[in-house]
TrEMBL record:
PROSITE patterns: GLYCOSYL_HYDROL_F1_1, GLYCOSYL_HYDROL_F1_2. GO terms for molecular function: beta-glucosidase activity. It comes from Candidatus Enterococcus testudinis. InterPro entries: GH, GH_1_N_CS, Glyco_hydro_1, Glyco_hydro_1_AS. This is 6-phospho-beta-glucosidase. One of its GO terms (biological process) is carbohydrate catabolic process.
Length: 489
């Protein structure tokens, strides 16, 4: 039996996002966000991640005109806004000492460009963070989790507009000051690397506004640069508000393998992994790698920068690196001739050695160990796994119980690999499973794609009691946390 290497004080918990959980989309002054435009698309394959994420001008207009929630599941969420005390009590029962949440920017600044914050929004998050603290749970708070104000898309150009950096900086200064005694751990941008996977959701770029793919690509890179600057400014203001807090970056870890040892395939995998590292390289090392500068030059992309941008990025680097991990990828020089798999993250060549979920995600626990070791060797900063989990259709049995042994098996395999990474010397702060309670899917706006240890009685169309019920995995994760990762049976 392998020795347990999970350190004392390890942070165990779960993760949710405001736009997928809170609901209450139009009360107490909240404005529309990009998430409120995300339409449930039952007519689109759940494996077609590009169409599931895609938003154009017509769909924005339709969403603004629609005042209800029927087609927009993220407007409903799971009613966490009103039920958070009940949910936090369940998290405490499971043994959580950390919960990752996000602040909906539009609860604080409904349009994003107001002079003064919305007090009702500030009061809500103060009550939420206080409730977590009172239950012995550290809030791990993401500042921007696919929730930018829609007004900044319709009246500006999303993050392509320089003004948005200033609007976000104001938002950060307000929440850091408000919650400096309640929040110890902050994250800047959720999966900042997702700018090309779903540019509308991540940076408010509507690709149809640009005449061709090249100009849209340049706009997305411009928006990314502005987010890097904003992340550095957030780090600056966070430390100024309370020098004891820690602030981290958050990226998607996409471990890419070559199909075989053919040198061309190895080179393709190396290129894919280097591109995945771009986003953490900038926030950890404080500078753009030379290869991306060369690429911009070759493509004729000119990033507009203030004369202090690069110095700011260099000066205010993050304290730790957090990441999501769901799947690994395979690349091949003969990709056109290979079977493909896809999820809501990326598409790649099918790996014949891995099982696959109903949504096209290939399950690879060893890839998590490899990712942890490679990231720690590269950056020598504390790491934090802030998203990991399996989406599945959970069906209550005749007695109303949810026997999700498949979820237990999934987490057990991943925790075993985390333990082996810890044995190799990786400095890991904690682990928060994604969707620790069932929430609306980020990509497909479904409720039927369930990740939680806690079942929420609601379907894809918002029908149900929304009552909470423990799944079989609830007691198992409770035992894992109580043993600090030692008891996985």
């Amino acid at each position: 039996m392998t020795k347990n290497y999970f350190p004392e004080g390890f942070l165990w918990g779960g993760a949710i996002a405001a736009n997928q959980a809170e609901g209450a989309w139009d009360i107490e002054g909240k404005g529309l966000s990009v998430a409120d435009v995300a339409r449930f698309k039952p007519d689109v394959s759940v494996k077609d991640y590009q169409q599931q994420w895609h938003v154009d001008e017509q769909s924005i207009a339709a969403a603004i005109a629609e005042k209800g929630t029927a087609n927009y599941a993220k407007r409903r969420g799971i009613d966490f806004y009103n039920r958070y005390e009940e949910d936090i009590a369940l998290f405490k029962e499971m043994g959580f000492n950390v919960l990752r949440v996000s602040i909906a920017w539009t609860r604080i600044f409904p349009n994003g460009d107001e002079d003064q914050p919305n007090e009702a929004g500030l009061d809500y998050y103060r009550a939420l963070f206080t409730e977590l603290r009172d239950n012995g749970i550290e809030p791990l708070v993401t500042l921007s989790h696919y929730e930018m104000p829609l007004h900044l898309v319709t009246h500006y150009q999303g993050w392509v507009s320089r003004e948005v950096v200033d609007f976000f900086a104001k938002f950060c200064r307000v929440v850091f000051e408000e919650y400096k005694s309640l929040v110890t751990y902050w994250l800047t941008f959720n999966e900042i690397d997702s700018v090309f996977r779903h540019p509308f959701t991540t940076v408010g770029v509507v690709e149809e506004r640009y005449p061709d793919k090249a100009s849209a690509e340049a706009a997305i890179y411009q928006a990314l640069h502005h987010q890097f600057v904003a992340s550095a400014l957030a780090t600056k203001y966070c430390r100024k508000s309370n020098p004891q807090v820690q602030i981290g970056a958050m990226v998607t870890k996409l471990m890419t393998y070559p199909e075989n040892c053919h040198p061309e395939n190895v080179a393709l995998a190396e290129k894919a992994n280097r591109e995945n590292h771009l986003y953490s390289d900038v926030q950890v090392w404080g500078a753009y790698p030379q290869w991306i500068l060369n690429e911009w030059k070759e493509k004729g992309i000119e990033i507009q920068m203030e004369n202090w941008d690069l110095a700011t990025i260099k000066l205010y680097t993050v304290d730790f690196l957090s990441f999501s991990y769901y799947m690994s990828l395979v690349v091949s020089k003969d990709a056109d001739q290979r079977e493909k798999v896809s999820g809501n993250i990326a598409t790649g060549v099918k790996n014949p050695y891995l099982p696959m979920t109903e949504w096209g995600w290939q399950v690879d626990p060893i890839g998590l160990r490899t990712s942890l070791i490679s990231l720690y060797d590269r950056y020598r900063l504390p790491l934090f796994v802030v998203e990991n989990g399996i989406g599945a259709i959970d069906t209550p049995d005749a007695h109303g119980e949810i026997n999700d042994q498949y979820r237990i098996d999934y987490f057990k395999a991943h925790f075993e690999q985390i333990n082996l990474a810890l044995k190799e010397g990786v400095d890991l702060m904690g682990y928060t499973s994604w969707g620790c309670i069932d929430i609306v899917s980020a990509s497909t706006s479904q409720m039927s794609k369930r990740y939680g240890f806690i079942y929420v009685d609601a379907d894809d169309y918002g029908q149900g009691t929304y009552n909470r019920k423990k799944k079989k995995s609830f007691a198992w994760y409770q035992k894992v946390i109580a043993s600090n990762g030692a008891d996985l049976d």
